[in-house]
UniProtKB/TrEMBL annotation:
Record's keyword annotation contains Transmembrane helix: yes
Signal peptide: none
One Pfam family from the record: BPD_transp_1
Domain ABC transmembrane type-1: residue ranges: 73-284
Family annotation (InterPro entries): ABC_transporter_permease, MetI-like, MetI-like_sf
Cellular-component GO terms for this entry: plasma membrane
Top-level taxon of origin: Bacteria
Species annotation: Kribbella solani
Keyword Cell membrane: yes
Name of the protein in its database record: Multiple sugar transport system permease protein
Amino acid sequence: MMAYWTTRRRDVLTGYVFIAPQLLGVLVFVLVPVGMAIWYSLNKWNVFTGRQTFVGGDNWAALASDPQLSSVLLATVLFSGGVVVLNIGLGLLIAVLLNRRFRGATFFRTLFFSPVVVSVVAWTLVWGFLLQDNGGINGLLGAVGIEGPNWLQHGDTAMVSVVISQVVRSVGVNMVLFLAALQGVPSELYEAARIDGARSRAIFARITLPLISPTVLLTAIITIVGALQSFAQIAVLTGGGPELSTTVLVYYVFQQAFEFNNIGYGSTLALMLLSFVMVLTLLQWQLRKRWVFHEQ
């Protein structure tokens, strides 16, 4: 018996014991729900009677004939694109500015990060009051002679409002990640570049950006996935309206499954959202070899 439990086998068993909780979590909270969603997408489920009828690919075929899906996908692209571009761009800009030594730097870092720890619903409710027709933002605009719109009742301004609300709340995460990356860049490289006469723009493009590119990849993946999964901001601020201007895909899944009790079609939409997230993540992971420093 003792001969069987060699050092290698004990190490392997120890490794499996340590990863067992994670594997169990993935099985229970990821693989099983995805498997159930696949099964539901092949059925028509009457939640009132509890009866399920196998319909095969009917729910998938309904995607092509859904008149609202194109508007939902457009809203998803606009929302996700705006959040990703602004979140990464502003996060990097703020990190570069706050990476310098000056009085009050710690205060401003805390100020920009503090919205991250606020409850999403509480944050969104406050923004809902600010964006009302007689809210705080229009009050400030009125003080300088500008008549502001009813931000949440018009399609264009509603989308801008939810994007800005999301960006202001979450930009602190990217700021912290970029700050950590910037502080890891060797100062000797900057000194050598300045001695050679390089300007600040060239130093940033040729030294800073390549060295922090792994962090840029990480923040891009996190931000894209987070944007595609943003639900509370839409639900609390606009409820998907006006019309379908802010109905993103994740909110449309909720509507179909839980408001219209169309569990089968809602599961199909959820699987489509999952496929989008997986494809975008894998695409970024494959493209990393072309622009991420140290990747082969």
